[in-house]
Every structure is written in C-alpha cells, then in structure tokens.
Design brief:
Layout: E1 4-11, H1 17-33, E2 37-40, H2 47-56, E3 58-61, E4 74-76, H3 84-91, E5 96-98, H4 102-116, E6 120-124, H5 130-136, E7 144-147, H6 150-155, E8 165-169, H7 175-188, H8 202-214, E9 220-224, H9 230-241, E10 247-250, H10 258-261, E11 266-271, H11 277-288, E12 292-299
Parallel strand pairs: 1-11, 1-12, 2-3, 2-4, 4-5, 6-7, 6-8, 9-10, 9-11
Helix pairs in contact: 4-5, 8-9
C-alpha cells in the first residue's frame, strides 16, 4: 500500500514584491530595447529565474568591465549596489536601470541620513552578501561597522561619548536572531537609534512567521530556494528552531531523500522570496510519484504589496 503523507503548505511563500519588480524590469527592458540586456550580478538569488531570463536574452555579469558592448542597457540587481557602480556606469557612458528593491533603498537612504548627522553606524548583516556590500558602499570606506552575531555585538568598541550610535540591518535576516543582537546593542548603547521603521522586510518577516506556525507540526520541512539566497537559508534555520529538526533547503534540480520522507506523516513546504512557485509545484508532483499526497495550505496573512517600475520603462 502506498504511504500517505500530508503536506502543509506555508503561505505566504515565494516571490515578494521586490523580486517580482526586479524580474519584471529585466523582461520589460528586453521587450523595449531587445537583446542582449546585461544584468550585473544575479538579478535575484535563484538559479532557475536566472536561467529563464538568459533564455529571453539577458546576459549576467559580475562586473561592468565584463560588458563588451557598452551601447546595451545594464540592470543592477535587486540586492542593491555600492554608489561606485552607477558612477562607473556613467563614466563608461552606459545606460543603466536600477532594480534595487525599494526596501533596500530605504536602508541606503537611512545610512546616508545617519552619516550626514554624524552618527556612528552599525550594520547587522552577513559579510560579503551583495546587499551588505551595497549598503556599506553608499558611504565612504570605514563609515559603517558590520556585525553578524550576538558575540560581535558584545565585542564591538565604539566611543559613544564622541558620536551618537545608530544601527541598520540587512532586509533578509532572521527576525529572532536579529532581535537578540539588537537587545545586546541596546544594553551596551542605551541611547542607540533604531530605524524609524523596521529594516527587515515585510516578506522576510511573513515567511518566517508562517514557517514558525507550521514547523512544529511537521516531521520534515522543505524550503525551496537557492543556496546563495539569504532569506531561504534563514527559513531553514527558523524551521529547525521551531521544532522541526529535519529541515533542509532544496534547490530545483536536487534529488529527494525518499528514504527519509518515507518515515514522515506530515511534511511542511515553503519557498524563499526569490523562488518561483513552479518549483514548489514541481516538488509536490515529484512527491506524488512515490506517495499518496494530500495538501493543506496554512495562510498566515495575505500580501498585497506592489512596487512601481522605473520611469524609464513606462
């Protein structure tokens, strides 16, 4: 007899408004200007999204100097870029379109405001993540101190007499881990300035909350997403911390651990903010080849956020 397994589908999951907008910017640029259109860095951290856009005529590069035909448009990824990148594009007389997520841009503007007002700025984020490089690159070198952990927060040395202290955060962090770091900073710097509105974006928060609700009920939990996707990695951590030890990230071409799944009665599934819904459906179809599957969608909240496209594409 075929084993019966119930799938609990987290909602919201998958694409957020910033990712939707970034992908749409690449597609609209291709339809308006033809191909090739260059994209600096993966537009969003998902291999299949990148592959699909390559088929439409997008060419992905890591740096502008890899672009031979400077007459073609270049798009900056949703993660944001240091100020030196648009400056370099202007010097090279390149036409560029910025697909930075508006919620990342908000953090950039915040950092600039703090710098102009003589604050000592702490950024909570992951070293070398494109978003962190972009935020740090809004200001002159060494203007921002990066911390990643509670230990970093405990050890950071700032002369709070000389300057007021403020913090900003990467938008795709674990809400709970970041909360712990902020608590340490607030004890250490009693007058530290917090962002006026939380920096961790609505989509990251909603996806993590949905996982927290479902994970305790599951024997196994799958997060569909790419390994270089920060928000997807955080969802795996949240699922584990919420009580589902057997939680893992699964990319679109990965082999399923059927032997482990056979021992399960309930499986949770979600997807990172840069993972297409089709990948979730593919995973469910694959499971159906081996098991009798029933699915239930657990809806935490409905999202209706949309972001406008740049004026140059209207």
């Amino acid at each position: 007899m075929t084993k019966e397994i119930k799938i609990l589908l987290a909602s919201p999951r998958g694409f957020c408004a910033g990712v939707d907008r970034a992908i749409e910017i690449v597609k609209k640029t291709l339809s308006k200007y033809g191909s090739p259109v260059y994209v600096r860095h993966e537009i969003v951290h998902n291999a299949q999204v990148v592959e699909n856009l390559k088929k439409l005529g997008a060419v992905f590069v890591e740096e502008l100097n890899e672009i031979e035909d400077r007459s073609r448009p270049v798009i900056f990824s949703a993660h944001g870029v240091p100020k030196s990148v648009p400056k370099d594009a202007s010097l090279k007389k390149m036409f560029y379109i910025d697909a930075t997520c508006p919620l990342v841009t908000k953090v950039h503007r915040e950092a600039e405001f703090l710098y102009k007002n003589n604050y000592e700025i702490i950024l909570i984020g992951h070293k070398n993540h494109p978003e962190v490089l972009g935020t740090m690159g809004q200001l002159p070198a060494n203007s921002i101190k990066l911390i990643e952990t509670v230990k970093d927060a405990e050890n950071i040395k700032i002369d709070k007499i000389k300057k007021p202290v403020a913090y900003v955060t990467q938008t795709t962090l674990s809400v709970d881990d970041t909360k712990e770091i902020i608590e340490v900073l607030k004890k250490k710097f009693t007058n530290i300035r917090s962002p006026i509105k939380e920096d961790i974006c609505y989509a990251t928060t909603n996806r993590q909350e949905a996982v927290k609700k479902i994970a305790p009920m599951c024997d196994m939990f799958f997060v569909v997403g790419s390994k270089n996707s920060s928000n997807s990695q955080r969802l795996v951590e949240v699922a584990k911390k919420s009580g589902c030890a057997e939680s893992r990230l699964i990319s679109f071409n990965e082999k399923l651990p059927i032997d482990l799944i056979t021992k399960c009665n309930k499986i949770g599934i979600t997807s990172g903010a840069s993972a297409p819904e089709q990948l979730v459906q593919n995973l469910i179809s694959e499971l159906k080849k081996f098991f009798n599957i029933s699915t239930e969608e657990i809806v935490l909240t409905k999202e209706n956020v949309t972001f406008k496209l740049p004026k140059s594409l209207n």
